[in-house]
Specification:
mainly alpha; 2 domains
């Protein structure tokens, strides 16, 4: 059994436990869990922002900028191929 399935199975077992159910009804516990979940998002956005700032300072393209440029090049190559196909031989 994969780790993910094993963790899901264990989580479902825990949710069936009355002690866990009672704990989940506690407002302070729920606030703590929500804070923990939000912390990951805040950390991700902070690191992304700092990475972009550093890349800008070093005059390097970010991954998003690189992908955008790559998409534009692919579109231009496709348009060039289409125009070459229209030309008489």
């Amino acid at each position: 059994m994969s780790l993910k399935k094993n963790l899901q199975k264990r989580g479902m077992q825990l949710m069936g436990d009355p002690r866990v159910s009672k704990l989940m009804q506690n407002e302070q516990v729920m606030k703590l869990l929500m804070s923990a979940l939000q912390a990951r998002g805040k950390i991700d956005s902070f690191t992304t922002e700092q990475t972009e700032r550093l890349a800008h300072t070093l005059r390097l393209p970010t991954l998003a900028q690189f992908k955008e440029l790559q998409r534009k090049v692919n579109n231009l190559e496709a348009e060039l191929a289409r125009l070459k196909a229209k030309l008489p031989s």
